Amino acid sequence: MSGPALHLAVELDGDGAHPAAWRRAAHSPDQLLTPRRVARVAAVAENAGFTLITLDDGVLPPGSSPDPVGRIGAVERAAFVAASTSTIGIAPVVPVTYAEPFHVSSQLASLDHISAGRAGWVVTEEELLGAARAWGREPVDGAEARARESRDGVTVARALWDSWEDDAVVRSVATSRYLDRDRLHYVDFTGETYAVKGPAIVPRPPQGQLVVLGRPERVPAGLLDVALVGGRDVAGVATAAAGAGTPRVFAEVEVALDTPDATGAERVADLERHAPWTDRGRLRHVGPAEQLVSLLAELSRHVDGVRLRPLVLDEDLPVLSRLVLPALSERRLVARPLPGTSLRSTLGLERPANRFAAPAALEEAR
Amino acid sequence: MTRTDPLDVPRPDARLHFGVFFQGVNHWTVWSAPESGSQIDPASFRRVAQTAERGLFDAFFLGEGLRLREVDGRIHDLDVAGRPDAVTQLAALAAVTRRIGLVSTSNSTYNEPADLARRLSGLDLLSEGRAGWNVVTTDNAWTGANFRRGGYLDHADRYRRAEEFLTVARALWDGWEDGAVAGSAGAPAWSRPGAVHRVRHRGPQFDVDLAPTLPRSPQGHPVIFQAGDSGDGRDFAARNADVIFSAHGGDFDDALAFAEDIRRRLRAVGRPEDDLRILPGTEIIIGATEEEAEEKKRWVRLQQVTPATALGIAGLLWGIDLSDRDADGPLPKEDPVVTENDGSFGSRRVADPRQVVDRWRAEAQAHGWSLRETVIALGPQRGHVGTPSGLADKFAHYARHGAVDGFNITPYLIPEGLDDIVDLLVPELQERGVYRTGYTGTTLREHLGLREPLTHRSAADRRQAG
Fold it and tell me: Which GO molecular function terms does the record list (chain B) (predicted)?
């Protein structure tokens, strides 16, 4: 594959990966939900040269009751960030366990238009029963049922993105037609739990299809562009990557870096006094920046990218920005996205042909 | 119109509030002109919103349609179509505007409160108190075909669901006490224990139990818009809305009658009669002289009502496919057919087409009009045409007599259709003292001069209102 050896994504939800990250943030809690904060943290990631921002989400507030932490919806944050950045990719987390696939498809297509083709989608699941009670729906119970909803939701969204051919808006003054209705398609999806007619109400996204990211054990590989894989060490990541079966694979890496004020270990210990940093079976690097650079260099032999989950954004992002990305760039392991480039192109993924247009094109060639 | 003494009118201090409605659908948007821009490029939305903000508008407004329009089972292909999800687009505009309100049309039938109320809250926070929600209802199965539940709702229940939706949404927006979020990183918890209240609601439409995820914005709640025109719709607005986006702005007497009807309904539910703003949707066509304005109107109508569109509009009236007829020829000789309404665009037909057709025939005969000319003259109408000063006099008169509180303006050209309104009309209105010369507040609620959200009023306020 051409392009850099490694793509770097960073998860920017809240104040960091640790549930108590807000205690070490450089701002007070009541500044978290302000537009300044949302724009600033994205600008830092863009200026550092990351390929992609992800924004975690779910219908339930993060932080356990009775101490919830506020969170603006990921799609809204992503749209706001898209309008205040210019090159970085932006992928909100959107579970379709309960959400309407038609709405999700429209929102994400809109995000791709707003960002001029820099949008992605991280597919996750609503696992807690509380999510069903929030939505006012029957629980989607069990891993199998949740996987079915994800599979159907992604299938529907992808079909809707193709339901407008790229040139469906013809603006033919001669025939008075704004649209060519032959280039619009009903998706006629029928799954086990619902049906969707289509076509979309939003024209085809600039990328044709957004970059879809997810865990390959939860979403069929054929529906993913990028697998997000865990693994506690490089060997574990390598094994997971080898079996992913997706065009690209990103490893999940949690980081707590040494800063001028405290070591990573000290910072973790400080936060552990308040809450545990749950082990989710991911690679975790706690220590100096140089070791992270070496680790990422090693990972670049097994995966196409890494999603970093910094312990505390306000502490780890500056170190990533000042030490880690420059060192990787020096070794030509990473490259910042080029202006005017879609996320797909940055990742070396082709712009997909439209499934509905294909038969017509074939017929013509016959 | 002669200029009246501003003190000799019912509302000498009235100020007009302008919104701009970026429609993205229907034949009022001219797509055939060289200057017709993209309906989906973010630059179009930014340009219109920033122009409106330069013109000190209260709000930028997006519509919503959850299914592409169809006529006789085929996708309607004559008009602009294909628009972004409203809340998503508005969240992007929040980053590139400073003051203007951002209003999303969102459906209460095919959304759930936990999701939509949260999305609107997020928009409200990202814009620091500039969000609005235009509550629309749908019940038809035709739209439902795009959603999990299908067409589950009875027509009679659509406002009941909307009202219950609002009840849950307001509870969610009120779920965080003021000052619930800690002001320093040294606080014992991110949010003050006990300051975030779960919302448990069990009603005919919703059975939910959840913790709200967001504190209130500087304006308390998103501003509620409503556009329904039926008796049920007007009562719903009187009970729930902050702003009515009405269809009664083209004629002074009609506008005043509508406004008085709404004020009656407000009093009946115990709200002060100035508790709600009435902003009719309107098109505004401006020329340097009356003749130039009329000339421009003629051009606009010919772009809007193409021969195919004329046949389409007449086809809806007649209830038959007229697409193979000659728009420049006479009116169809057939009698109109009354067809069943399935909710699609093509089934939105007149209740008594016979009566309308008889009138069209009589007028066409009297003036020697073709079908297209008849549709232009008698078809769906809206809007004001004139010079900047003439329109300013007219609008000042409307406002000072309590017929409107402003207008939600639908530009016929995207993205530059607001330019002459902002550059030519707004200064004339300012000169007459009927339009702001600067934003005095930062939130949409402040721009509109609205009171606190309905659920924040004290019992004393409510008694006073009664």
Answer: monooxygenase activity; oxidoreductase activity, acting on paired donors, with incorporation or reduction of molecular oxygen
Number of structural domains in chain B: 2
b/e B66-101 (16+ beta carbons within 10 angstroms → b): bbbbbbeeebbbbbbbbbbbbbbbbbbbbbebebbb
How do residues B370-424 score in pLDDT, each as one tens digit?
999 999 999 877 799 999 999 999 999 999 999 999 999 999 999 999 999 999 9
Mean pLDDT of A312-330: 98
The answer to whether the pTM exceeds 0.90 is yes
**Full residue range of the structural domain in which residue A203 is found:** 7-365
What is the extent of the structural domain holding B332? Answer: 291-378
- Give the number of other CB atoms < 10 A from CB of residue B179: 12
Chain A CB contacts of B92 below 8 Å: 79-80, 82-83, 114
CA atoms of B259 and B280, how far apart (whole Å): 10
The domain that holds A210 is classified in CATH as 3.20.20.30
In a domain, A2, yes or no: no
Residue B140 lies in a domain: yes
Residues B63, B115, single domain; the answer is: yes
Q: Best mutation site among A15, A22, A27, A30 for testing chain B: the one with the most B CBs within 10 Å?
A: A30
Quick one: closest CA in B to A192, which residue?
B148
CB contact under 8 A, B67 and A69: no
Answer whether residue B316 is part of any domain: yes
User: What radius of gyration, in Å, describes the C-alpha atoms of chain A?
Assistant: 21
Answer whether A129 touches B (CB < 8 Å). Answer: no
DSSP per-residue codes, A37-50: HHHHHHHHHHHHT-
Suggest the residue from B50, B98, B128, B148 to mutate for an interface test with chain A (most A CBs closer than 10 A): B148
Work out the percent of chain B whose per-residue pLDDT is above 70: 96
B369/B240 same-domain check: no
Residue B8 lies in a domain: no
SS3 call for B357: helix
Q: In this predicted model, what pLDDT tens digit does every residue of A330-350 receive, in sequence order?
A: 999 999 999 999 999 999 999
Res B465: pLDDT: 43
Q: Is the pLDDT of residue B466 over 50?
A: no
Best to test chain A binding among B45, B80, B88, B142 (most A CBs inside 10 Å)? B88
ipTM for the assembly:
0.97
Residues B370 and B261 in one domain: no
Are A188 and A164 spatial neighbours (Cβ–Cβ below 8 Å)? Answer: no
Is residue B22 over pLDDT 70? yes
Burial readout A100-115 (b: 16 or more C-beta within 10 A, e: otherwise): bbbbbbbbbbbbbbbb
Pair of tokens at residue B1: 């119109």
- When CB atoms are compared, the residue of B119, B182, B208 closest to A76 is B119
- Chain B residues lying within 8 Å of A13, measured CB to CB: none
Domain's final residue, options B327, B350, B378 = B378
B-contacting residues of A 182-201, CB under 8 Å? 184, 193-201
Do both B276 and B420 map to the same domain?
A: yes
Q: Which residue of A has its CA nearest to B74?
A: A181
The last residue of one of the domains, among B338, B357, B378, is B378
How many distinct structural domains can be found in chain A?
1
Statement to judge: residues B371 and B411 lie in one domain? no
Instruction: Measure in Å the smallest separation between the Cα of B196 and chain A Cα atoms.
Output: 8
Quick: pLDDT tens for A215-249.
999 999 999 999 999 999 999 999 999 999 999 99
Structure tokens at A125: 């699941």
Nearest CA in chain B to A80: B92
Chain segment B300-345, per-residue pLDDT in tens: 999 999 999 999 999 989 988 999 999 999 999 999 987 777 778 7
User: Minimal CA–CA distance to B40: which of B78, B89, B1?
Assistant: B89
Q: What is the CATH number of the domain that holds B265?
A: 3.20.20.30
Would you say residue A186 has pLDDT above 70? yes
Indicate the average pLDDT of chain B. Answer: 93
Judge whether B203 lies within some domain: no
CB A11 within 8 A of CB A54: yes
> Using one digit for the tens of pLDDT, what is the confidence trace for A32-69?
999 999 999 999 999 999 999 999 999 998 876 556 78
